[in-house]
Amino acid sequence: MFGKKKREEANEDVYETLPEYDFERDGPLVSPKLRKTDEVLEAYWIEPGLTRVSIIRTAEYENVYIAHEPALTPFEAELLERLQPAVRDLLILKDVEVNDMQEVLYESIDLLLESYNVDITNATVYKMRYYLKRTFFGWGRVDILRGDHDIEDISCSGYDLPVYLYHRKYRDIKTSIFFTDPRELDSLVVLFAQKAGKHISLSNPIVDATLSDGSRIQLTYSTVVSTRGSSFTIRKFRKNPFSPIDLLVNKTFTIDEMVYLWMAVQYNYSILIVGGTASGKTTTLNAISQFIPALSKVVSIEDTREIMLEHDNWIASLVPLSSGAITPTQRDISMFDLLKAAMRQRPEYILLGEVRGVEAQTLFQAMNSGHTTYSTLHGGDVTMAIHRLENPPLDVPKATIETLDIVLCQGSMFRNKKQVRRCKEITEIVGMTDKGELEINTVYLYNYQKDAPSFSGTSQVYASIAEKTGMNMTTLGEDLRRRTAVLQAMLDQDIRDYRDFARIVWLFLSNPKYVMANVGDLTQILPGKCKLHETLANRPIGKDEYPEMVEGPADSDAAYVVGSTISDRRNAPARVCYTPEPSRESKAADEGSGSFTKLVPVSEDKLPKVDFMPIDTSGAGSEPAPKSAEPAFSLPPKPVPESAEPAFVLPPKPADGSGELVVDLPSESVPGSVEPPVDLPSEPVPEPAEPDVKAAPDDVEDFFFDIHTPLQPEEEIFGPSEPEPDPLFEVEADRELTSFDLYADEQTSGSAPEKKQQ
Fold it and tell me: 580 and 559: one domain?
């Protein structure tokens, strides 16, 4: 399998490691299972064979993002616990280059496994590699989300809360990933800060940073500024930006609108893109910037790197993160400073990521000095954008706003229960009226009923272009038709990569006849006579490979139980939930009086594991441990149940005449009840037999990846009759619980709270 081999020539030890994992050769290491009540909406691979995703709709009609990772047996979980500190020590002692870190990691794992003298399979070695690489080089528990190209934002709000995503297709969606141990979330936040070269602590609990892949991250540490615990928000960086053809496919713009913007960009008309949050302003800015001629000098200024162009003559400026400077000589560099520096670089086009403050005045001064500028601004429509420019903190003089040529308003709306982005209007700033007001001309206006824009018939930009170039309206109309044909050909031939798009646009500007001669097959004029394909797409999974649907423990259990991703919290207080149970005395009265039963406090830990089985996204599974030869040392034994019965079963209560299990609790009738409850036929429940549960040894060590935990006395599980409230979370005593509550109400008295009347 692997091991040490002597090299005779150099007389040195060379460790022959296993080859890299191959999905086709080694088969999948993931065997996902979902509840039979779940509906699989979509499934795809993140890393084929190792990580996959299932987006489901639960029985409660909620969309959940289920992350599947390789399952670990109890033996493999213990082995991983042993390997992690040992491998860390080896990596610290070795002086290796960044490019060789993965190879050194694999050699260290194989060296340690050989020294342990443990007989394991290749699949176990690949699992050890995956989890250790995830820990040392990745994002820890959320590393699987890093490779999903459909995710825009990742956010974690605190301890024992699910991680949420903004998915390009499903929008805001909850995941099956939890951080039940506060120490693990705190460590991950510190790890993110270190990867970004920053320091975070109790004295400096807020950090804004940029990760190595360009993603922007905001961190808070512990409960100093966030009462729910450490938190992080990651805004992922898209490496392959949208092209104008992508916007045409998504129906954000029509071809006529895109031709209008093409002409405006080529002939140096300044554009301001206005819209609300997540309306696609920066995406549109990046897309229309691809119409800029190839040799023009471009300077972009951003605080988050999002603009991506194919130009070589392009200076990409980025506002540096705050360094905490306190003296004027060490002050931080702002977007205003970069914009002033860009004015001295003689650019033809200036791209400003977003206008927020005093840099707006410099931006409009650049327009007055002859520079073509493109920027974005938060606003609902053109009127609101102009009012915001005129008032603090922007304070742009109205006479200066007159130099702006085009205001493009974009918005987010819903069509067929889906969120879409549309261009609401394209407006031209014509000039100033006699009363000192801005005169505007709306060229394209969105029609909500038809889901399409309408052309007003007049355009000051087209008239100005005809005047600049000396073209009459007939010649200008012919030029517009040629550009429309080129865009339509790229749309029909699915040429969507921004690099291919830019090359065709540049070639059209230099040799339009050659492009029109090959408009039937534009790939003939591309390098290599082939188009670039989208390589950053997730690998879909067919319905025949969907997860197995089971009735027992499944990966989707985390969608129903809070904090059940992995049983890794030690000595955690028992969480209290309230479930309705009929009482013996009130059962007969309820049949005729229509009263409500009390809410009986039941600890989650005491519920049968067959109904609430913790899901282990870190890899803990139920596969049997492999048989091995006599190892050099023996790992501590793990308690393994001998049967399929749950580790803990609620003791049966006495049954009444109908044979149903009841709880001996009094009930109170709710006054004002009019309609009696519907009588449902009940089937007799046989008397359950006493479970045969063997007590676990007291000296068994509790590991991070354990699933089976030793039994505890009833007083230790439930706590005293009047437990102290959890100081970490406080909720109202009379709060009504729903199936979507992420927090269970704390038990503050000996009696359970009554259910509120509807």
Answer: no
Q: Is the peptide bond before 393 cis (omega within 30 degrees of 0)?
A: yes
Same domain, 556 and 582: no
Which structure tokens are listed for 698?
């007291």
Structural domain includes residue 200? yes
513: left (phi over 0), alpha (psi -120 to 50) or beta: alpha
Residue 729 within a domain = yes
Residue 272 lies in a domain: yes
CA angle 303, 308, 312 (to 5 degrees): 115
Residue 146 has phi, psi (to 5 degrees) of: -65, -35
- The pLDDT tens digits for 330-373 are 457 888 888 888 988 999 999 998 888 888 888 898 898 888 99
Which distant-in-sequence residues (6+ apart) come within 8 Å of 608 by Cβ? 646, 648, 649, 650
490 by Cβ neighbours in 10 Å (0-12 / 13-18 / 19+) ranks as buried
Asked whether 125 and 18 are in contact (CB, 8 A), the reply is yes
Sheet strands side by side (includes 406-415): 314-318, 298-302, 349-352, 372-378, 271-275, 406-415, 418-432, 438-447, 452-455
Q: Please give the Cα distance from 520 to 282 (Å, whole number).
A: 32
In the block, residue with structure tokens 């009263």: 595
Q: Are 403 and 368 in contact (CB under 8 A)?
A: yes
Q: Three-state secondary structure along 142-183?
A: HHHHHCCCCEEEEEECCCCCEEEEEECCCEEEEEEEECCCHH
Overall size of the chain counted in residues? 758
| Whether residue 445 is found in the same domain as residue 296 | yes
pLDDT in tens, 25-58: 999 999 999 999 999 999 999 999 999 999 999 9
Report how far residue 5's alpha carbon sits from residue 7's, in angstroms, rounded to the nearest whole number: 6
pLDDT over 70 (residue 7) = no
Alpha helix stretches (DSSP H) within 310-372: 335-343, 359-368
Q: 3-state class of 302 per DSSP?
A: strand
How far apart, in whole angstroms, are the C-alpha atoms of residue 57 and residue 34?
11
Q: Write the CA distances from 73 to 80, 123, 610, 613, 616, integer angstroms.
A: 10, 12, 18, 16, 11
Question: Is 537 inside a domain boundary?
Answer: no
Q: Which letter does DSSP use for residue 213 in this model?
A: T
CATH number reported for the structural domain that contains residue 92 in this entry:
3.30.450.380
Long-range contacts of 741-745 (CB under 8 A, 24+ apart): 742/161, 742/162, 742/562, 743/562, 744/562, 744/575, 744/576, 744/577, 744/578, 744/604, 745/576, 745/578
Of the pLDDT bands very low, low, confident and very high (cuts 50, 70, 90), residue 237 is confident
Radius of gyration of the chain, Cα coordinates, nearest whole angstrom: 32
Q: Are 410 and 275 in contact (CB under 8 A)?
A: yes
Q: Does one domain contain both 420 and 449?
A: yes
Distance CA 201, CA 702 (A): 29
Q: pLDDT tens-digit profile of 536-546?
A: 678 899 999 99
Say if residue 189 is in the same domain as residue 282: no
CA–CA distances in Å: residue 407 to residues 174, 272, 336, 433, 716: 37, 5, 22, 18, 66
Q: Give SS3 for 137.
A: helix
* Structure tokens belonging to residue 385: 């954008």
**Helix, strand, coil shares, percent, the chain, to 5:** 30, 20, 50
Tokens 């991680």 map to which residue?
Answer: 163
Q: Which domain holds residue 121?
A: 1-140+549-566
Check whether residue 655 and residue 733 sit in a common domain: yes
List all residues 6 or more positions away from 422 whose beta carbon is below 8 Å from its beta carbon. Answer: 251, 252, 410, 411, 413, 446, 451
Give bridge partners of residue 661 from the DSSP assignment: 655
